[in-house]
Amino acid sequence: MFEKTRLQLTLAYLGVLSLILTLFTVAVRWNFTRSLNRQFNTKLENLAQAAAFNMDNEDGELETDEDEILVNEQQTIEWFDLEGEIVGEQGEDKLDVSLNLEQLENIQNHPNSIRSFSKPVYNLETEELIGYVQVSESLVELNNTIRRLDYGLGSGIAIALLASGVSSIWLTRRAMQPIEASFERLKQFTADASHELRSPLMAIKTNADVALKYPEGMRDTDAEKFSAIASASNQMTKLTENLLLLARTDKGVELQLELVDLNFLLTDLMQLYKPQAEAKQLSWQLELEPELYLSGDRLLLTQLFTNLLQNALQYTSFGDSVTVNGKRIDSQIQIEIADTGIGIAPDHLDKIFERFWRADKSRSYQFGRSGLGLAIVKEILQVHHGTVSVDSKLGKGSCFTLIFPR
Ligand SMILES: Nc1ncnc2c1ncn2[C@@H]1O[C@H](COP(=O)(O)OP(=O)(O)OP(=O)(O)O)[C@@H](O)[C@H]1O
Ligand SMILES: [Mg+2]
Fold it and tell me: 360 and 216, same structural domain?
């Protein structure tokens, strides 16, 4: 019963956790790559600065210092004259990057994973522009570092999710334990209370019936009171029986399985309620395919169809029609109970199977309804692995469709 809630809780917990982890990972990755890129760029700028000092023009001739100032093998330095012609180079792995005079003092990313920085070079004494320097470095190492970070974060998330998945199952199980235990106690209480109420109710009913059997010497008003007592105790007996039945199905009732002939069962029930249908001048039809056999609990199935037929009788008006249709569809048996009665409002359709729910709450006592009929139908179908659906239009009628696996 709590499996669905447990699963929903675990999934919700995992969902929230994955969201937090994802946000955390995105933030860490963003910060880390930003700082790596900054470091990389500063390194390029510093190198360019140093390389600019290594260029000078002596007697109109541009000269570059031969001293190696590269930090690693992935870097190159290129010096250019004012026309953009290369005048000096450093670096083993020459990265073939041409100078773009439009974009000096800008960090540029080139398509083949190279980043470069170029700046103008001025004569230190005269401060006139004498050429340009461009430093470049391959991004392979930087990209590798970011890839390693991605792998690390990815596997961290996977491990964290796995661990939290296991712990969330354990936690939700622990959190649900007290709820399940109190629900168990509540079910037990309902079952015990309904059971204990049966005998005193029976005593009230029997005494009222006996008193009504010999009304001589009884005042008319007293006779009315006794019949009200008998009727109220009848309703209470029905209510306690319904509650007891629900408590049994909640607990996982042990089915008394047998081969039930639905033709026989439904014909019998339709016959039983025929007088009431005739009193309301209902068209009371039964259309069944032959040989509708079902392995099920006869008493529970009788209760199920009784509830639906009673509803069909209750929620129809004079002259309406009620049709029960049964057929086999592949390996299933489908029973439809359709009426042309008052129908159900669309926003009530998902509530009618709830316990104690009634569309017209005000008159329930008058008609002895508790709103348990359809809840019992649903439970009985569930223990028979069947399903129920309803199609209804307010003022036009309702059709309850039951599907049983054969
Ligand atoms: N065939 C139907 N046509 C219209 N409304 C229906 C029909 N069957 C059920 N309902 C609506 O669904 C509600 C719940 O039905 P349910 O059988 O569970 O309870 P109930 O008939 O009110 O009481 P109980 O069956 O316990 O005597 C009803 O009160 C009624 O409003
Ligand atoms: Mg009912």
Answer: no
* pLDDT score recorded for residue 365: 55
Q: What is the pLDDT of residues 274-294, one digit of tens each?
A: 999 999 999 999 999 999 999
Strand 321-329 relative to strand 283-288, pairing: parallel
The phi, psi pair for 85, rounded to 5°, reads -85, 140
Q: What is the overall mean pLDDT for the chain? A: 90
Structural domain range at position 210: 147-249
Ligand 1 pocket mutation pick from 352, 361, 379 by most atoms within 8 angstroms of CB: 352
Domain boundary among 217, 249, 281: 249
Element (H, E) at 329: strand 321-329
Q: Are residues 300 and 173 in the same domain?
A: no
The answer, yes or no, to whether any atom of ligand 1 lies below 6 A from the CB of 36, is no
If asked whether residues 177 and 317 sit together in one domain, one would say no
Average pLDDT over residues 388-405: 96
Residue where one domain finishes, among candidates 138, 169, 200: 138
| Integer CA distances (angstroms), 336 to 120, 296, 326, in order | 89, 18, 6
Please say if the pLDDT value at position 83 is more than 60: yes
Which ligand gives the minimal distance to the CA of 313? 1
Count how many domains the chain has.
3
Best residue among 311, 336, 377, 396 to mutate for probing ligand 1's pocket (most ligand atoms within 8 Å of CB) is: 311
Q: How far apart are alpha carbons 256 and 262 in whole angstroms?
A: 16
Same domain, 306 and 322: yes
